[in-house]
Write a structure and sequence with these properties.
By secondary structure, this protein is of the alpha/beta class. The strands form 4 sheets. The chain has a two-stranded parallel ribbon. Helix content is 38%, strand content 16%. The radius of gyration is 16 Å and the shape is globular. It starts with a strand and ends with a helix.
Length: 148
């Protein structure tokens, strides 16, 4: 039996997709796009400089399919090898929506908050030839389309 563990990095899609029912637990891009589209300021912990490797759900689905097709065994990272700050994300959402809503900066309400994440998917690429196809700017545009 082949078993692969895939570590997904900050998976996102639009709020109106499978995220809306999650409310405050929806991915940050969906939450922030929804708030900004409705004239509300998104809340960012600290100064908004924390970074994430945001990976579109379509790329994650393809990764799962390739892992099964290649019958690989092991643990693999699935991400983009690119990191964007929350401030950059808010700027991209504002650009996509034609808005200018500034975030509200708040203190992180819990200990152990991870400031930066970024995947190295090279091992997964070697095993399956997988690469992300949806860049972050394009992904943000996709998330914002329903609001335009």
């Amino acid at each position: 039996m082949n078993v692969a563990g895939l570590r997904f990095f900050s998976v996102y899609q639009g709020f109106g997709g499978n995220e809306e029912h999650k409310g405050e637990y929806a991915n940050t891009i969906a939450q922030f796009a929804d708030k900004i589209a409705n004239g509300e300021a998104p809340e960012l912990f600290g100064d908004g400089s924390q970074t994430r490797d945001f990976t579109h759900v379509r790329d994650v689905a393809r990764a799962c399919e390739l892992a099964a097709d290649h019958e690989i065994t092991g643990v693999y990272n699935v991400g983009t090898q690119e990191a964007y700050s929350f401030n950059e994300m808010v700027d991209m959402i504002n650009d996509a929506l034609g808005t200018d809503i500034a975030p509200e900066y708040i203190e992180c309400p819990f200990d152990g908050y991870v400031h930066d994440t970024m995947a190295d998917y090279s091992t997964f690429h070697e095993a399956t030839s997988w690469e992300p196809e949806i860049g972050f700017e394009e992904g943000v545009e996709l998330v914002c389309e329903p609001y335009q």
